[in-house]
Amino acid sequence: MNKSSRAPAAKFRRGRLSDLDALLAFERDFFGPDHQISRRSFRRFIVSPNCTLIVAESGGQVAGCALVLYRQGSKLARLYTIAIATAFQRRGHARRLLAAAEASARRRGCRAMRLEVREDDAGAIALYETSGFRLFGRRSRYYDGRIDALRFEKPLVDKSRRRPA
Ligand SMILES: CC(C)(COP(=O)(O)OP(=O)(O)OC[C@H]1O[C@@H](n2cnc3c(N)ncnc32)[C@H](O)[C@@H]1OP(=O)(O)O)[C@@H](O)C(=O)NCCC(=O)NCCS
After folding, report:
1. Chain centroid to CA 67: how far?
2. Which residues does a 6 A CB cutoff place in the pocket of ligand 1?
3. 165 part of a folded domain
4. How many CB atoms lie within 10 A of CB 45?
5. pTM of the predicted protein model
6. What is the pLDDT, as a whole number, of residue 4?
């Protein structure tokens, strides 16, 4: 049996205002009381036309989320965050959520996706490297004034235009 057939199905959908409590609880689980994204910010991310918040839902629970930001006049999408709740990790959810985020950026006509990741986040770096992202830069002491950020980019090929081999 392969890994994805063992995993409980997750469905991926746009975040809704009714997800706010679950998203905040999820964020607090990861970052504690000093959580990074406030209710107000989550609300903005859900309603703003300049971003796409995708929720992974499994068994009626918010199992994870990904947030993609867009800038007017730019063909670059920025993956601002992607996270899977601890109880749902290592089941392939992040890889599929990332693919959903890429598909969403492609539909908006973006030509590439960029992201920053802590240089000590080996799991996330492995996820990005095995999903086609390539390292192109570094931001010194980007996190807490201490930890460098690695900058990754992936070209977003329009699959409908790809020629058969
Ligand atoms: C990084 C994270 C999103 C991965 O979620 P996940 O659902 O467990 O990941 P998947 O099961 O889809 O794994 C996909 C690949 O990522 C890599 N990976 C994920 N977690 C890993 C870990 N703990 N150690 C090593 N590699 C890991 C592997 O290459 C894995 O492929 P494999 O299982 O075939 O080896 C999750 O650990 C998380 O939410 N971490 C905290 C938040 C975070 O760091 N977000 C990224 C920066 S914003």
Report:
1. 5
2. 81-84, 89-95, 117, 121-124, 126-127, 130
3. no
4. 21
5. 0.91
6. 46
In a domain, residue 65? The reply is: yes
Q: What angle do CA 103, 50, 46 make, to 5 degrees?
A: 85
The half-sphere exposure of 112 on its side-chain side, counting CA atoms within 13 A, is 13
Do residues 59 and 88 make contact, with C-beta atoms less than 8 angstroms apart? Answer: no
Question: Residue 23 sits in a domain of what CATH number?
Answer: 3.40.630.30
Domain range holding 148? Answer: 3-160
Q: Greater confidence, 132 or 157?
A: 132
Mean pLDDT of 19-30: 88
Question: Looking at the 3D structure of the chain, how many domains does it have?
Answer: 1
Query: Which residue puts its alpha carbon closest to atom 19 of ligand 1?
Result: 123
Report the separation in Å between the CA atom of 48 and the middle of ligand 1, taken as the mean of its atom positions. 28
Q: Distance (Å, rounded) from C-alpha 131 to C-alpha 6?
A: 21
